[in-house]
Design brief:
The complex is a heterodimer of chains A (about 120) and B (about 110).
Chain A lengths: L3 E3 L3 E4 L5 E3 L1 E3 L5 E8 L3 E10 L2 E4 L6 E7 L2 E6 L8 E8 L11 E2 L3 E5 L1
Parallel strand pairs in A: 2-12
Antiparallel strand pairs in A: 1-4, 3-9, 5-6, 5-10, 6-7, 8-9, 10-11, 10-12
Chain B lengths: L2 E3 L4 E5 L4 E3 L2 E3 L6 E6 L5 E7 L5 E3 L5 E5 L4 E6 L8 E8 L6 E3 L3 E6 L1
Parallel strand pairs in B: 2-12
Antiparallel strand pairs in B: 1-4, 3-9, 5-6, 5-10, 7-8, 8-9, 10-11, 10-12
Classes of the chains: A mainly beta (about 120), B mainly beta (about 110).
Chain lengths: ~120, ~110
Amino acid sequence: DVKVTQSSRYLVKRTGEKVFLECVQDMDHENMFWYRQDPGLGLRLIYFSYDVKMKEKGDIPEGYSVSREKKERFSLILESASTNQTSMYLCASKSPRGAQGDTEAFFGQGTRLTVV
Amino acid sequence: AQSVTQLDSQVPVFEEAPVELRCNYSSSVSVYLFWYVQYPNQGLQLLLKYLSGSTLVESINGFEAEFNKSQTSFHLRKPSVHISDTAEYFCATQGASYDKVIFGPGTSLSVIP
């Protein structure tokens, strides 16, 4: 059974703290993604990675950074947490597009982060 | 740039009634289209997808979607909804590079007993 695991379901942090959100997948996927989900805005891409140590900015990278030291692990870092980063964070992984077309993205359960 | 529009943010419907969730996309290239579902307090999971071939695709739980290139639409339909279909539904398409998945804002389906 395929699995994407996010380290925490719920997290409460103080303004200014450095926050690490961890994501691990066991499917040997090359591509991994971090999204944030907010009501009325859907899922917005923060960063994605298509290989170890490779990363690309998504649509809303400001205030975030990422780390991909190993293929199975993709970390999202909030350098200095702010209240406007209170949100649901979703990690996903997928294989690259193959000969048969695009492939399904697999999602973790999400981490609900509250910054106070 | 590719984008996805879901015009209905909330759709309430009575149990056993039909439902249609609308999705429109914009793209200048061939697209792959997806519907994902998010049940309460869970992550997203794939409901169905269109890659090529038949324009009508079906899911195992009775949903279907039709790819309409001329109208750039990929509406999701079910002839008779169940309470357990209450969820958030996201339409998505692939990005132009590096397999980015681009999501619409989502439609919250509420099935009323």
